[in-house]
Input
Amino acid sequence: MAESPVLAVNNLWVAFRTRAGLLPAVRGLDLEVGPGETVALVGESGCGKSVTALSIMRLLPPTAVITEGSIRVDGVEIRDLPPARLREWRGRKVAYVFQEPGSALNPVFRVGHQMAESVRQVNPGVDPRPVIRELLTLTGLSDPDRVAASYPHQLSGGMQQRVMLAMALAGRPDLLIADEPTTALDVSVQAQILRLLRDLQARFHLSILLITHNLGVVAQAADRMVVMYGGQMVERGPVSAVLARPGHPYTRALLAAVPTLRGQRTRLAAIEGQIPAADRMPVGCAFQPRCGQPMEICATTLPMPATFEEEWVVRCHCLKSAK
Output
């Protein structure tokens, strides 16, 4: 990567405190997002995607703790920021669009009231009304005054998502974390939101960390992808390379589960079983209990890749020949 990354996560370990001790939810994750780049973090529910994003924002629940690793945004170590600096940093450097905008927005306050709070956070003393109007217009809402005067339940899912994006842009951040931004939206609205993200990225030179389980969204919106399973990275690379020649059995299984319009009607492929619990994670490749072609070597501990200089890294012994 020629330019310094906007986001650099190195050897991130996140665990939850339980009566049985610390249980890891993210295990040794490395992740980078370059200037103006979109990187997709992909995997099933429970694989550690949202915990990773909340770690970057320092919004983990009280029971969770970062036990090891580094999180740098524009070269600044986020783990070292005191609370006052952290409040200033959120929104200005990194903004977060949470899952399910209908739940993220407070149902008892009008949209304008909630947006005003975000605007004042990053621009104290500024009259928020013209800023709110500008932000809502920027995200494609043609009647910003009506939207600002509405309660969240009076807006469609697509409009709620545009409101969330408008709030995130209030501080003109360098990095936008979009957590499942197209979930529960129909296909046409999903396409509109993805197009809006691309337009906003080009206009503000945004870096985007896109969290999703939808490989169709990845193919449309991302430059590079990182596949997570069991809290670990199992594969990463340019989207075109990974989707054309997936190296890890888990990535191949995810692709096989994507419906297509070609050929005869067939039953969708399913990945048997479920992600192992954190306290029952197997040694070596975490996917081996669900893999259709496990080998003896898969039960050995795999080394983490040393750098991000390689174009395509596959942490899987048995399929290295697939490259």
